[in-house]
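Q: Structure tokens for this one, please.
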Amino acid sequence: MRFLLITDTFPPDINGVARTLATLAAGLKQRGHEVEVVTTLEAGPDEAEDAIKRHTVMAMPLPGYPGLRMGFTTTWQMQSLYESFRPDALYVATETPLGIASIRAGNKMGIPMVSGFHTNFQTYLEDYSLPGLEGVAQGLLRSIHNQTARTLTPSADTAAMLERWGIHNVGVLGRGVDTALFDPARRSMALRETWGARDDTPVALYVGRVAAEKNLELLTCSFAKFREANPSAVCVVVGDGPKLKSLQSEHPEFHYAGSRTGEDLATHYASADVFIFPSITETFGNVVLEAMSSGLMTVAYDYAAPRLLIHTGQNGLLAAFDDETAFLTQCEKAANCWEDATQRQAAREAARHLGWQRVIEQFETELKSVIPPILAKDPA
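A: Here is the predicted structure, written as tokens:
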């Protein structure tokens, strides 16, 4: 079958949505389907020759966030692409002008569509100087997603939210992790030494965008609490974003590793001890899976992926959602039990059963489910 994925972000972008969509696209291709992607960025120089074929559209940086882009196209242009590729179904993973034009063209041509809700952009508005517009954004998102046959989102929490907004036929498509890549065996003493950490020095780690919506103020307070409880501790930030320079200026005591990918990223995870994740805006939180697969004790809020995976005192530490005092208390606990090998092995075991194959199979089933039986056919 032919599937077309439509998204503003795709590798070489470095973020959870881009990695997820690349994994899903590659998985569909491995299962015998013809897959192409419409996105905003050309392929990187290291992309394999047999990589997913992409069609790029015009784009502009998101206001206040130059590292991400918003795609632009027309209904006519998308219809022309559909006529050329003849997709059996579309997966529209963006609510920007690119996604809106893609859905409009799909409806005009009668092509079955599934949409994806990957990012809580409506909660970012206040962080990016647009307060008071969350209700307007919810109405727009409801209108967009209800034009597709089904909307997929990665957690039950987010699915319940979408249903409260009036979005119909919402499904949960979870996430997976490459447990061979994110493995405690990648721990590197040489890397720890560059951070000034000995074998008996606890390292607290953050991985993700360095941006306002990631609750950076609580992150810095959490690192401070961690070091207060264990003065020898080292704190490491992996990632890039619009707030990186200001964070570096305000907190030069942290180590900043920048963006990392592949084995390099996996080594950074495995070389730490505790993962601190204070965000309250996730639809899932792929980094939590990666940290747990790497054998780290995770401190996070009780929602999305952490709620699904973490059992406090057994394989990590949860705090009541958006309760900063409780979160800091858990960071203090983590600083005092970071060497708990039982909890860290249990974190690894919890992630071990969450490989990508089951997610890819469900994604394939979801796409096939919106195709009328008379049009369905076996993969080429």
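A few notes: The first strand starts at residue 2 and ends at 6. Residues 16-30 form the longest helix (15 residues).
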